[in-house]
Amino acid sequence: MADPKASNKKLEGKVAIITGGASGIGEATVHLFIDHGVRAVVIADIQDEKGEKLAASTGHRCACTYVHCDVRKEQDVESLVQSTIQLYGRLDIMFCNAGIASQSLQNILEFDLSSYEKLFAINVGGVAASIKHAGRAMVKANTKGSIICTASIAASVGSDRHTDYVMSKNTLLALMRCASTQLGPHGIRVNCVSPGPVATPLLCEAFGMGAEDAETSFASMYSLKNNGVLKVKHVADAVLFLASEESQFITGHNLVVDGGIQIVKSS
């Protein structure tokens, strides 16, 4: 008898890499990709204990491996892509999700250039390296792949703090648009997903809040009411859409997932 859920598996047979995949949005996306039939998923992170535990807990559902990868080091990223292809024969989806928050308030009058350089090395340089090497592999194999980058609604607004973070996410949008233009002739799509504030471990640490307090604080910002609070699963759902054939004619796009916070701010 045919599996009644088979038609709902949007990534059947695909091979995916998820950077920053050990926790938060990345972890939620690992689970969702597996639910939708990926043949293999490679979790790339520097959180070795969490990454190895996640790979071990999901390995019975599909081929799932963890690779230590510091995206600041281009050699790590190149090796990540090459080892994925050696293991699984192809690469269909690259989710460039690794990133960090500002390490200080970063007001422009007290701008710390060393903190800015560290943040940009991860949030921008790491994504550029990931797109470069995933794109090269897809072009070489003639794979009509999908590359998705995690930006933020911070890219569309100003801020009285976290200047370096806002700069990095603005830069990601420019990078995505350039990459989508250049890789489009090869049939490779490049898009961004821009979450609103979601209570990931990274964001909770940055704001000095627990998850419940953060969610309560964020919920008051939405224009959407009575829909609950923004969760990592909602962001993962958007990534799934951009990774799947449902978005086969969407490229160079920034998909905002924020419960309407931008609408409120602009009104």
UniProtKB/TrEMBL annotation:
InterPro entries: NAD(P)-bd_dom_sf, SDR_fam. It holds the Pfam family adh_short_C2. Transmembrane segments: none annotated. Gene3D superfamilies: NAD(P)-binding Rossmann-like Domain. Belongs to the short-chain dehydrogenases/reductases (SDR) family. This is Uncharacterized protein. It comes from Hibiscus sabdariffa.
